[in-house]
Amino acid sequence: MSPFKVYLYICIWSNHLTLDNQNMKSNLIALVIACAVLLTSCSHQIMSYNAIVPQTSDSKIPYDLKGERVSAKGGTIDKATQKALALAGRDYNALINGTVTMYHYDFILFYNVVYKVEGTPIKLK
User: How many degrees, rounded to 5, is the angle at CA 105 between CA 52 and CA 89?
Assistant: First the structure.
């Protein structure tokens, strides 16, 4: 929902649709408060890592191939890691030297948590 729609709903709800200065000020204050409370988000870096290896890999840390840094978002850390490895290409099966960041988005009565995994893909031997 756009901030303008929130503003209109607040104005209609509070019956302040007149154009005098006092009501415009109260409408503006209500709009700012509604946007600050209802449409917030934050992010936290929850870990740094030297290597993330999927559970299906039985390889050791020595690697043959090193790729360009990649990042991907997902609903879980595992899904974000799998997306990042898919973006890197079929030759890679692990990530090294990266971070995991959690994003928390609040929307009125609902929220969404997304994890972002960044790292350098490698092909383990």
Answer: 35
